[in-house]
Amino acid sequence: MRLTETYERAQAEFDRRVRRIGDGQWSAPTPCTEWSVRELVNHLTAEQLWAPHLLRGETLAEVGDRYDGDVLGEDPVAVWERAARDAREAFAAPGALDGTVHTSGGLTPAEEYARQMTLDLTVHAWDLARGIAADDRLDRDVAASVYGFVEPQIEGWQDLGIFDPPVEVAGDAPVQDRLVALLGRDPAW
């Protein structure tokens, strides 16, 4: 599967859950213990808002603080939809993944950035599904791709405090369970 296709499918997984959020669910907790449903959607929406800028070569300083705080406003679903569309178009643009982007970790190959964005969309789609008590089944191919990307480097990311320590699951558990457990989430949450 092409990287842009994996990204788009991961984004569709998150989008499907955003569209299912009921009025009373925006303040519900998620397995990502720092964030409520709204805070989780805000985080992913801000990431999507950043993507077109970074893929055009803008620096963090040039983007500035415009996406700090609450980016969702009064119509969170509509803001998410616009941000997702613009990010999808930016990632699909010819040559978008050929260069480097400025990230908080320094200059990063655009393909690596796309993989990181895909990872975030995938794990947070699961978080969001659990937070709103929706179907949490992820696209198996996307989960397998993300697991293959994350597994070899998880220790370094945990050392940075990006993810909680892994949760134990059986070695023959479905790839989705192994992925969320690797990222510090209890598949039974």
From TrEMBL:
Q: Which InterPro entries match?
A: CHP03086 (IPR017520), DinB/YfiT-like (IPR034660), Maleyloyr_isom (IPR017517), MDMPI_metal-binding (IPR024344)
Q: Which SUPFAM superfamilies match?
A: DinB/YfiT-like putative metalloenzymes
Q: Which Gene3D superfamilies match?
A: dinb family like domain
Mycothiol-dependent maleylpyruvate isomerase metal-binding domain span: 9-129
Recorded hits in Pfam families, A to Z, give: MDMPI_N
The source's superkingdom equals Bacteria
Q: Which NCBIfam families match?
A: maleylpyruvate isomerase family mycothiol-dependent enzyme, TIGR03086 family metal-binding protein
Q: What is this protein called?
A: TIGR03086 family metal-binding protein
